[in-house]
Sequence to fold (366 residues):
Amino acid sequence: MHTLYSRVNNVSAMVSTCLMVLLGAISLSSLLFTADPKGTLSISSIQVFPGNARRYSNKNQDFTFVNFNLTADLTPLFNWNTKQLFLYVSAEYENKQGVRNEVVIWDRIVRRKEDAGLSVAGRNKYVFRDVSASFKDAPPAHYTLKYNIMPYVGVLTYGEAARTVDPVPFPERQDLS
Amino acid sequence: MFADELKTLRRLGVRHVLLQILNFVSVLASGLMIWKGLGLITNTESPIVVVLSGSMEPAFYRGDLLFLTNPPSQRYKTGDITVYKVPGADIPIVHRVLETHDFVSKEENLVAASPVVQKQLLLTKGDNNHIDDIELYQGLEWLERKHIVGKVRGFLPYVGYVTIAMNDFPQLKYALLGGLGLLALVQRE
Fold:
């Protein structure tokens, strides 16, 4: 019990046990926070234009451009174990062939509680295209705001904060004149 | 320096040395059993991975540990952070799903056993990258379920840096293994 080796052994065993219990307690404490904030999402304009696919420049493809208004107060999601919040607006729709699609068109990383009260008038950051290269005759789409809470230690959680009340139809393809 | 240890070994005999080696090997074997058992429960080939690149910053930095599962009865959704391996590349990539396209079978008499049976095409993107991962797919246009190793469920910061250090400085790996082996052989218990 009095050699350097046994002292180092005991101290390191104690430190690692305490550290593991502490990390386990922190990750479990995230279960106590069950906030479920809701916001509003509305589409202000939506247009469909033709273009060329990125990889094959002679392949025609339809691109949809969406402008939306988003308000949400997500501050209840921030607790001592929240490292950042990953928010994303996605479009859910079924295309003419019956394929169910979900496409993320905008995202944002929120790292501080002060930035969590959102009021955004945004447009799609990412290219919104369909697997079949055309939005013709596609049924209307629902747009949702979802979040992913990323903790300092522990389990990642997901949730939905806003959803368009009525489905938004895809307009006819406009030609670039 | 080793004169004392050699004298002890000679006194205890060959049988003692063999017993020590057996102890060492059984520790290794139980470690391997736990690892493979975890892989079976979570349905992935490597349930714990270390983040290698900075493409998911500021969420995941190099050296963070991620816990994965691959539930066969759930389909992948946008926003899930997946670890995938493109055929032809050995390194697993940790990125977030940007698009999902589910081909639902319309056949009348087909009973879908699980969502995995239906074809699902995915597109991913790292949080810290500006564009999606098409360049990384080595010719594929979409990822399929079979390319995905698992979905990130839990996270532990900094712990994995040991494996990155051992990869970058192989001398550290040999020194550690050599030291552990020596310690196991000359331990009295």
